[in-house]
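worker-03 picked up job from queue 'complexes'. Input manifest follows; two sequence lines, order preserved.
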Amino acid sequence: MTISPIRISTRTHRFGAANSWVLLSCALLLVLGTLVAILFQHSSSKKPQTKVQELRMYCAAGMQKPLESVAEAYHQQYGIRILLQFAGSNTLLSQIEVSRMGDLYLAADYSYLEMARQLGLVEEVLPLATMKAVVGFQRGNPKNIHSLDDLLREDVRIVLANPDQAAIGRTTRQALKKTGDWSAIFKRVNDLGVFKPTVGEVANDIKLGSIDAGILWDAVASQYPDIETLEIPELADTATNISIGILSDSKHPTAALHFARYLASRDQGLKEFAAYGYHPIEGDAWEEVPQMVFFAGSVNRRALEPILKRFSEREGVEINTVYNGCGILTAQMRTLVDQGHGASSFPDSFMACDRYYLEKVEDLFQDAQDVSNVPIQMVVASENPKHIKSLQDLTRPGVRVALGQPEQCTIGVLSRRLLQAAGIYDQVLENNVVTQTATSSLLVPTITTGSADVALVYASDALAESDRLEIVPIDSPLALAVQPYGVARSSDRKHLSLRLLREISKSRHLFETAGFRWEFDNANLPE
Amino acid sequence: MQTHSNKNFPKTSSQQGDGLQTDQTKPAHRVRSDTPFYFAFVVISGTYLLLLLAMLLADAGYMFQEDSPQVLNREWSEAHPWLAIAANNPIVAALSDDNIQYSIVLSLVSCTITALLSLFVAIPVGYLLSRHQFFGKNFVDAVFDIPIVLPPLVVGLSLLILFQYAPPSIREQIVYQLPAVVLAQFVVACAFAVRTMRATFDLIDSRRENVALTLGCNRAQAFRLVVLPEARSGILTAGTLAWARALGEFGPLLVFAGATRGKTEVLSTTVFLELSIGDLGAAVAVSLIMIAAAATVLIVIRTWGTNKLTL
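worker-03 finished. Artifact:
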């Protein structure tokens, strides 16, 4: 009889039962996945935009070629049609004024956009390229033109663009009036030449040979191989800034800005401008949704938040804000720069608590503008029991002083500077200072709780508790913190940052409500 | 507190009554009263508890004495005066703010993700450190403790510097974006979880595990079937510790994730930033919201985790 060997099962696997590891991991992954989904869904729940089909743009005639190609490329990529309307810059401005319709206005010179802005027709302006006025004639220079006087010769018929219709006309008139040649040329054109409404027609006339010479933009001339150009000293000062503006009456400002940014970006629109002979400016790099990084001192937050929200919604950009004490921010910036990896985490712009901190990173920023200021004052308990009237009173024995820590907060640095200038810093520090706080907001509580007799604080901090305090102003030009805004040299979004500055400059009331004083000089407004 | 009866203690020779008298003069051992012991412990614990509760009440008191913001509109306030009193306070004002609501959701979600990730990492690390000796173990141990020792800002700065070495495509997805929030919280929270898990595994006798191995399990099975169930309460502690730590962390976040409203701002960041503009009322209001959220979550987890109502 064979005994069947007993097989001891060494398998520990249970059939029909789910593996608990797998179950547990799946459950955990499900939970994690749901949480991550909630996170991302919540953060991107912005208002859905009504789908834009087309944008209407008023475009100066001289820019026809590059605009048509850029609009076509944009249409291919985003499916939005740009309806282009060409005419002289001034003509277009009148049309806009009358019709109050449309989204974009591209003028051959910034001065038209400035006028439009004053008329309240245009909001944002993006600079694009520059051009210069030159004399143009047929290739080979059959009439031998070498100077302005040659244009006044009997046998030369000249064409100019109408100064009241086209930018080139107006620029020519301005330039020649300065040199005193305008009346002669004007008479010449009236007698023997012709005024045309756009620069394109001027170029055509020269090309066709119906006219011997004319004055037109160098970029336009370069688009016509039959036209040769000559630079003359009388037209030396005619460089113009081609810019595009977003119309205030536009129904789709964000979409319009999207296209304007596309046009003004150095790797998209501006390449076309360069190809057609214009001199493009250094534009921002193209991004669908630009991610701006903005460093700001925490004191500025209350005033800045609504501005940033408004700006990011209108421009369709995301602003990543990093708030902190300015000392920490400048240290962070130095670290990022020292690494030199073309760090994308370096901020595009920085609004500091005081000029002191921007000066520390001066080499990394450009275009610093002062935005607001806040005076530094002494606060004491109501009724001023210790009769503190001036900085010198801080040295009196028995007076307990609270200051900010100079290593940790701006008020500390500024207080130290103020007291050092008065020559009493070391004395006060040794005999009278009872506490040095890490942030300015902790100074006022030292007075209201009675742990100090006097503190040096920002006026905006004293505002909140003004019924329990008395304010003693300090008579010194150093008793002021000035908040500057600077754009980073390394930024790929300089123009966007400048537009943000413009937005900030329009929000005086927000700063004043937050307890600051306005410092911005409107003469320094960026374009 | 009753004193233990003498029957638990060995009888003295005089009580044994077997005739062998040696030292009949020694009195019976009486256990000393427990009252002083419990009294001392309760006093110490009670004082600390009172201190914490007093802090909370002081916060609430401070907040209510601030100017009450108008949350309900005028007609409502006049029509329902009691409701107006209850609703017009900084906490409700804070809660009705979209940004704070987003902040709350982000805090809860990111802390939970952080806690789960920390557990996922801390369990293996704790197990290995506890069960195995290897060359350089002390060094590795010290490295795992670094995030606890470093000031929070240094952690944030180090992360920022690290990611500058990453290729821009990765860097742009992370720095100042949502993943940065979770990463920054994770770095600090995991260190605490690792410490706790290591202590847990240290306390679990490796005997049972070894028995399982002799019965035919491999390491993974022994771990799953024997060690993990026993470590359950330790895991819960480590998880809640990591969660709580992540909730309170703001230093690294400020530097690495930024404080973008509606995107990377969490409750702890809000408190710090409100404080730095001197808005103490709002800071306290958000702090109380944080405390309430944390307390709710911790109570729920503990109740669910230990299957007992320990309120």
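worker-03 released lock.
The mean pLDDT of chain B is 83.
The radius of gyration of chain B is 27 Å.
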